[in-house]
Specification:
Radius of gyration: 24 Å
Number of helices: 6
Number of domains: 1
Number of strands: 4
Structural class: mainly alpha
Distance between the termini: 14 Å
Largest sheet: 2 strands, antiparallel
Strand content: 5-15%
Length: 188
């Protein structure tokens, strides 16, 4: 190994790091951050946190028994008032259960993003791909004349989040192709 290595220098074979006194083995799977790493992590964590907040706020403001009854009544006018009310109550309960679970997952993934958990990179990438599908569904919902339980402004906000998810997805794919998970490269 070199005679006067700098502290933190990686050996030519990538297996050791100079600590100032001795060559220490590098942990298996070790990767070094690049200039993309921290912005990618923070962007993912911020997006996931804000998306979770948006889901909770949107659900709190616009998902209620009356709005769901209105939507069901317009789609299935043959149902009785009791059937519509029961279906609306079930719809609101399932909506809240879904939002709570999805928001908890998003917060957990945001934490994983900040901590650079390698597996979290791939899960967030898939999450972003699924969230990006909202571009098509949001655009379709905005142009639809059907009665919906959420106002157009709420649907537009969801569309904005889907477009951001699509942009992050492209960045994630570029980072993985160029460097690896969390835009971290293998030491050279």
């Amino acid at each position: 190994m070199s005679q006067n290595p700098e502290i933190g220098q990686i050996s030519p074979d990538g297996l050791f790091r100079w600590d100032g006194q001795d060559w220490m083995p590098v942990a298996r799977g070790y990767r070094e951050p690049t200039t993309w790493t921290v912005p990618l992590q923070r962007s993912a964590a911020t997006y996931l946190g804000l998306a979770a907040l948006e889901q909770v706020v949107t659900n709190a403001l616009f998902t209620n028994t009356a709005s769901v009854e209105k939507t069901i009544r317009s789609q299935r006018p043959s149902l009785s008032a009791d059937q519509i009310h029961s279906a609306a109550q079930l719809g609101v309960a399932l909506s809240w259960a879904t939002v709570i679970v999805l928001s908890a997952i998003m917060i957990f993934l945001a934490i994983g993003s900040l901590l650079r958990w390698r597996w979290a990179f791939w899960v967030v990438l898939v999450w972003l791909a699924l969230s990006s599908l909202g571009v098509a569904s949001g655009a379709s919902a905005l142009s639809s004349t059907a009665v919906q339980s959420q106002p157009k402004g709420s649907i537009a906000a969801g569309l904005v989040f889907a477009v951001i998810a699509l942009g992050l997805l492209v960045w994630f794919i570029a980072a993985a192709a160029r460097f690896g998970p969390w835009a971290m490269r293998k030491p050279s």
